[in-house]
C-alpha cells in the first residue's frame, strides 16, 4: 500500500529581499521518514521554518492532511498537527525541565507522555528540576525533541536534532526516530550527518541553492560517493 501523504508542499517559494532562498520546492510526505540533506546555506532551515509558519512564504502551497496552512500563523499551523524541533533548541532559561515538559504536554492523551519522555531520555529525568541555563547543549537538544513529541503531532520536522548530542545518545536517537511511524507520526529530518539521515530514512532529498536537486533512496546515496562529493562536499563516505 502506498504511503498516503500527510504533508504536501507545492512550488513553495521564499524571498529574503532580492534573494530567492527557496525555489519551487515540492514534496509529498507520508508516514515514512524522509531526510533533507545539503551543505550549509542551501535553504534547509528556511524550508523547515516556512512549513511551520515561522518564515512567510512568497508563493506556493502547504497542505496538512488536505488543509491549506501556508497562510496561517505558526500557532494555528501547530493545531493542525505539525511540530518542529528548531535548530538552536530555543529552550526557556527560566523554566525547569519538568516545567518545560508540562507546558508542552497536550493533556489530551497520546503515545507520548511525560513519563515516556523520562523513560526514553533518562538524562532528562535526572535533570528534571534543573533550569534551562543549567543544562548542557546536548541536554537542551533532548528537551527540544521531547517538547515536540509531547504535542503528539501528526507530523514533526526536526532541524539538525543530533546537534550537540554525544555519539551514544545519537545511537539512541536513531532508535527513537525510527519508531515514530509506529505512533502515527511522520518525520521530515534535516541533518548534516549523512550517516544518521540514512540510518533513519529510506528516502533522501538533496537541497542545492534553494531547490530540490535530487531525490533518491538512502542506499543509492550511500553507494554513490561522487554524488556525495558533488552535493554534500564530503571527504569520505559517511563523514
Which structural category fits the helices and strands? Answer: alpha/beta
Distance between the termini: 34 Å
Mean pLDDT: 90
| Radius of gyration, CA atoms, in whole angstroms | 17 Å
CATH architectural group: 3-Layer(aba) Sandwich
CATH class: Alpha Beta
Topology order in helix (H) and strand (E) letters: EEEHEEHEHHHHEHEHEEHH
| Beta strands, count | 10
Percentage beta strand: 25-35%
Low confidence ranges? none
Structure notes:
This protein has 239 residues and is of the alpha/beta class. The chain has helices at 44-52, 74-79, 97-104, 114-120, 122-126, 137-149, 167-178, 194-200, 218-223, 225-232; strands spanning 7-16, 19-29, 34-37, 59-64, 67-68, 82-85, 155-159, 186-190, 203-208, 211-217. The strands form 2 sheets. A 6-stranded mixed beta sheet has the order 6-7-8-3-9-10, sandwiched between helices. It has a 4-stranded antiparallel beta sheet with strand order 2-1-4-5, covered by helices on one side. The radius of gyration is 17 Å and the shape is globular. The relative contact order is 0.18. The mean pLDDT is 90.
Please summarize what this structure is.
The protein has 239 residues and is an alpha/beta fold. The chain has helices at 44-52, 74-79, 97-104, 114-120, 122-126, 137-149, 167-178, 194-200, 218-223, 225-232, and strands spanning 7-16, 19-29, 34-37, 59-64, 67-68, 82-85, 155-159, 186-190, 203-208, 211-217. The strands form 2 sheets. A 6-stranded mixed beta sheet has the order 6-7-8-3-9-10, sandwiched between helices. A 4-stranded antiparallel beta sheet has the order 2-1-4-5, covered by helices on one side.
Amino acid at each position: 500500500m502506498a504511503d498516503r501523504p500527510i504533508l504536501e508542499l507545492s512550488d513553495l517559494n521564499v524571498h529574503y529581499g532580492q534573494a530567492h532562498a527557496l525555489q519551487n520546492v515540492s514534496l509529498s510526505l507520508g508516514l515514512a521518514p524522509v531526510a533533507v540533506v545539503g551543505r550549509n546555506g542551501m535553504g534547509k532551515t528556511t524550508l523547515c521554518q516556512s512549513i511551520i509558519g515561522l518564515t512567510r512564504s512568497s508563493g506556493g502551497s502547504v497542505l496538512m492532511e488536505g488543509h491549506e496552512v501556508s497562510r496561517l500563523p505558526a500557532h494555528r499551523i501547530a493545531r493542525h498537527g505539525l511540530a518542529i524541533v528548531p535548530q538552536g533548541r530555543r529552550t526557556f532559561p527560566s523554566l525547569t525541565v519538568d516545567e518545560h515538559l508540562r507546558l508542552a504536554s497536550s493533556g489530551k492523551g497520546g503515545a507520548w507522555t511525560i513519563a515516556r519522555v523520562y523513560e526514553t531520555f533518562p538524562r532528562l529525568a535526572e535533570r528534571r528540576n534543573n533550569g534551562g541555563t543549567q543544562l548542557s547543549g546536548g541536554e537542551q537538544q533532548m528537551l527540544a525533541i521531547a517538547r515536540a513529541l509531547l504535542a503528539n503531532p501528526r507530523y514533526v520536522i526536526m532541524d539538525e536534532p543530533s546537534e550537540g548530542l554525544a555519539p551514544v545518545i545519537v545511537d539512541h536517537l536513531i532508535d527513537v526516530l525510527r519508531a515514530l511511524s509506529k505512533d502515527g507520526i511522520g518525520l521530515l529530518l534535516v541533518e548534516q550527518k549523512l550517516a544518521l539521515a540514512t540510518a533513519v530514512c529510506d528516502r533522501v532529498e538533496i537541497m542545492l541553492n534553494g531547490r530540490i536537486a535530487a531525490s533518491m533512496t538512502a542506499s543509492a546515496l550511500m553507494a554513490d560517493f561522487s554524488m556525495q562529493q558533488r552535493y554534500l562536499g564530503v571527504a569520505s563516505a559517511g563523514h
